[in-house]
Specification:
mainly alpha, single chain, about 75% helix, ZIP Zinc transporter, ZIP, zinc ion transmembrane transporter activity, about 250 residues
Length: about 250
């Protein structure tokens, strides 16, 4: 968007990269603050839990000191029961919500673009977007399915939000198609900013919440997986990169 000739020359040539970095930072900030809040709540609930004491006997400070780490561990272990898992786990609700936010921003723009695109690009764009949304849906759906808890209502709402957001974008496009000017400077800036911001969110989710935590952080599915699983996962990962890169040529 920012390279469009109708936009003119930008004073800052790395505008797209700057907005992408802003999206990455906002994703980091959201997850970090959310995880600290969850840990603080867990610690408070652990401190307020009643402690069993012996009848009329008091333990010395030396006897109580070793019990403190176990108490802290139980508080963190209780986090999984009350909040759906270790906050460093990529399948926590917070991480999946951040991922879905990026996908939703992106999907709205896709829906608008599909409607306002010219007739000569419509068929190609439709095929590319169908495959693009299909693979995004697979990734997001897999994370939603791994969340703890029942399917209804939270998981169903998250799945429905992804399924409906592109049609909503198309409806917006149909509403503005007669007044929409894809070459207007303000339109290009608005769409380019939203596109780059959602790209930054998806970069964070892809690299940190999915790739790094699955492969190189202890506890990830691939960190100590059998070699055949690692090979299959690596081939699938590379194939997905290549396929999405090819689709991106026409998207």
């Amino acid at each position: 968007m920012f390279s469009n000739e109708c936009l003119g020359e930008l004073e800052y040539e790395a505008t797209t990269s700057a907005v992408v970095m802003a999206g990455i930072f906002l994703s980091f900030l959201t997850e970090y603050i959310g995880h600290r809040y969850i840990l603080a709540r867990s610690a408070r609930s652990g401190d307020s839990s009643p402690q069993q004491v012996d009848n009329g006997s008091s333990k010395s400070a030396a006897e109580q000191a070793p019990a403190q780490p176990a108490h802290q561990h139980s508080a963190l272990a209780g986090l999984g029961h009350h909040h759906g898992g270790d906050p460093t786990n990529p399948n926590t609700k917070l991480s999946v919500l951040v991922m879905e936010a990026g996908v939703i921003f992106h999907s709205i723009l896709i829906g608008i673009t599909l409607v306002v695109a010219g007739d000569s690009f419509y068929k190609t764009l439709l095929v590319v977007i169908v495959f693009h949304q299909f693979f995004e849906g697979l990734a997001l759906g897999a994370r939603i399915a791994l969340l703890p808890g029942r399917t209804f209502p939270m998981k169903a709402i998250m799945g429905a939000a992804f399924a409906l957001v592109t049609p909503v974008g198309m409806a917006i496009g149909m509403g503005v198609i007669h007044s929409f000017n894809g070459q207007d400077r303000h339109t290009l800036i608005a769409l380019g900013t939203l596109d780059a911001l959602s790209a930054g969110i998806l970069v964070w989710v892809g690299l940190v919440d999915m790739w790094a935590r699955d492969w190189v952080i202890e506890g990830g599915d691939m960190f100590a997986a059998p070699l055949r699983h690692v090979a299959a996962g690596g081939i699938s990962l590379i194939a997905g990169m290549v396929l999405m890169g090819v689709l991106g040529k026409w998207a």
